[in-house]
Write the structure tokens for this entry.
Amino acid sequence: MNKQFLKNRRAKYGGISVLLTILLLICVLLANALFGTLAARYGWTVDLHPVQTFPVGETSAVLINEALRFAENNVQIHFCDSPENLEQGSLVSYVYETAKQFSERDNRIEIVYHDILLDPESVGEYLTSTVIDTKTGTETTQTITLQKTSVIVTSGEKHRVYSIGEFFQYENGDSVPTAYAGEKKLTAAILRATALGAPVACLTNNHGEAYYDTELLSILDDAGYDLRGIDLTQSEIPSDCDLIVCFNPNKDLAAENGISAVSERKILDDFLAIPGHSLLVFLESGTPQLPEWDAYLSEWGISPCYAKDSETEYRYRVRDELGSLTSDGYTVLGKYSENELAEELMQNISQTPVFSGATGFRVASGFVPSANGSYQKGDRRVAVFYESGSGAVSYANGKAVDADPVGLIAYADQTVFGGTSRIGVICSVDFAAAEWLQPSAYGNAEILFRIFETTSGVRNVGHIPAVPFPSSVMHGLTRGARIGWTLLLVFAPAVIVASVAVPVLLRRKHD
């Protein structure tokens, strides 16, 4: 048998090929092991990862120069490690490079180094910092633990400690950053440290409001606001308050009646009778019926949508089966509504906003359309900034009730004493969730920064973009788009193979 095998030329060549293949694989494995050992011993390594640099832009330069022009003291940016360690490629190195660019550009910004392990007393005065209470939204001063990656920004006696994670953007709770927001955050820190009198935002806490995450509060903070909690029935609105935020109310406004001696509608009217004052309200499809709130917003031209079912009225819940980012259809993309007021305040918003669990509104009766696309009644006007798309349908109590577009963001203003006061309504509480505010692929954060810039009258860091790290993640794909891509990827290879194979088979058969 063996002699016959050796005489068989095809079998002999096949055996030699297999043997040579095995020998080659053994040589490759031995060479790989040898070079791996030598590389580890002698440091024969080259870092092929791309090194991203983040040059600072002109927007931060203008904002910082304006702030320092009126500041009483210069700015110091403190790092809790040595310059050598800060340059070793960890996340803090990005912030360090941005700080160096700021310092090189402006001699009123100084970088200070501490070794918190060898000399902990050098940072003893910075062991407290302003922290936002997630239950009330109020800023409090608390004792903190400094890390080697902590960044401290000071000006005179004012200081604030920042964790390294605040300089980056993340997605869906992932611990790996997807974008660098250091220029924006460090600029905001400098503006806050040098501010002579920051605008005040009061967050109501007497309507069952709940702040499930702090992302909205962080944006308010970065926009330059000092945050305070307030119970409108128990406390007077501070004289320096410019903005009241009511986030996800679950209890109605107190009405002056036999039960309550306080009318919150009158309190809000008095507040908004002063030019420059604003109210921002976040609602959602799960918000219970609030007759006093609904009546008050309708007076400003914003009428929340309800549908009656079995003698009970239910808020609209906006759904778009194909134009949704989630499979249930309830995370919809907003459609920009073109009008003069929207163009004035929302111009150049680069990304589409996301509304999850959204309800809707319509312009209240009595407000008549004007030539500029807004609606007018007396000294008040209202405009729709974003609405549901053409494929969206509104549901109530689980039933489809309305196929017409509904408003998702409204903005109303009134002329008072030669100035303007405003009300904004956003029909999605999750609009302000970290899931949609963090990724730069969506316009939610940019819109909020623009709103807060309008209410405060102070240009903020919302114009400074976060810079994404290289990523293969595809953002903003609606359910319809995902279905389309899936079908394409499933059937396109089969069609290509068939188009090549069938002619070959037919030709062979014919031959």
